[in-house]
Amino acid sequence: MDVRCTSLDEVRQRIDEIDRSLVSLLAKRGRLVTQAASFKKTTDDVRAPARVEQVIKKVREMADETGASAEVVEQVYRAMISAFIAEELNTHAKLAVKASAS
């Protein structure tokens, strides 16, 4: 459902609404990434390059289906995945320290 805005202010307001939804979804995704760290044995499991490429392929297909730019979607996802991997590596390291202290 595309909405036709009648002013720049309306465009910005709608973008702000989308941003609020995106940030909420990123928070949910982040919590799942944190959980995933506990199931992975090694940092290679965290980095999971094959899984990254699987996700990229999937979201590019989704972009094509929805009329989004596959290039933009891929760039956004690669940046997001990279940030989440860094966070997950940090969580994974903390879990490893905790496990070795037990």
TrEMBL record:
Entry keyword set: Isomerase
Domain Chorismate mutase: residue ranges: 2-92
SUPFAM superfamilies listed in its UniProt record: Chorismate mutase II
Any one GO MF annotation of this record: chorismate mutase activity
Top-level EC class: isomerase
Pfam family, one: CM_2
Single GO biological process annotation from the record: chorismate metabolic process
EC number in record: 5.4.99.5
InterPro entries tied to this protein: Chorismate_II_sf, Chorismate_mutase-related, CM_dom_sf, CM_II_prokaryot
Domain of life of the source: Bacteria
Name of the featured protein: chorismate mutase
